[in-house]
Specification:
255 residues
Length: 255
């Protein structure tokens, strides 16, 4: 019983502790705004609709409703009003979108983050608080994402550079991606792609360690900018990259 009592006391202190700054609130606004913009662009272009069914067809009205609900929840998070309601609404809408219409890892990730952010203003019964546990959970999630990503890439397929080769050649051939001429030639070389792949794994693993230790801030920011700056510019991964950069910059303690 004493051991259980000690654990419960520590848990109570942890959940009751206030955050030292407004980093989570800033991240909440940036993250929600990014995915509101994503959904608005997606709705305007019908991109998820085309991705789930390639041939011409009428839009699925239920998907449109779900995306509009996600936008509404995201706007509440951006505004900082009814944060719990907005976060839970956005999280549920994104889960429905993932499970019913189009399973995408990014959507699952966004739904979990929205769930934590729903509690960043103290929850429905303690509005106006800044609970520290939200930052702790988000940082733990980020550390796990980078650790798992680096671990899963420790295989011959990734380390050979083949994935980067296919990705970059697809962007060149299918989308006329505006790589400089010397980069087009470099990306066409498997040894060059293999070097980039191994550098990427190393940096993602290092970022996981920085997030776990919560220091040093400058190294975490440098790593996330390098990893996701490359991802955005070179492999056409924009919204997830921007989300991860915002997370590390806003959530990693500066001291």
């Amino acid at each position: 019983m004493p051991a259980a009592s000690t654990v419960l006391e520590r848990l109570e202190r942890w959940t009751a502790a206030e955050d030292a700054d407004r980093g989570v609130a800033l991240f909440r606004r940036i993250f929600a705004l990014l995915w509101v913009v994503y959904d608005v662009i997606d709705l305007a272009g019908g991109m998820t609709e085309r991705a789930r069914v390639w041939f011409p067809h009428p839009r699925e009205p239920n998907l449109v409703v779900v995306q509009c609900v996600a936008v509404a929840g995201g706007l509440l998070l951006v505004a900082g009003r009814f944060v719990w309601l907005g976060g839970m609404t956005a999280a549920i809408a994104r889960i429905v979108e993932s499970l019913v219409f189009f399973p995408l890892n990014d959507f699952f990730f966004v739904s979990v983050v929205d769930l934590w952010l729903a509690h960043s203003d103290g929850g429905p019964f303690a509005r106006g608080r800044r609970p520290r546990w939200v930052r702790d959970v988000l940082l733990a999630q980020l550390a796990w994402v980078y650790f798992a990503t680096a671990l899963l890439k420790l295989n011959p397929d990734w380390l050979s550079g083949g994935h980067l080769y296919v990705r970059t050649q697809y962007l060149i051939a299918g989308h006329g991606w505006p790589y400089p001429a010397f980069l087009k030639r470099a990306f066409g070389s498997l040894p060059f792609d293999a070097v980039l792949a191994r550098i990427g794994v190393t940096m993602e693993g290092a970022l996981a360690v920085v997030l776990f230790l919560r220091r040093p801030y400058w190294l975490g920011v440098a790593l996330v900018l390098a990893v996701h700056g490359f991802g955005a510019a070179m492999t056409n991964v924009w919204f997830f990259s921007a989300s991860m950069i915002a997370a590390v910059v806003c959530l990693l303690p500066r001291r």
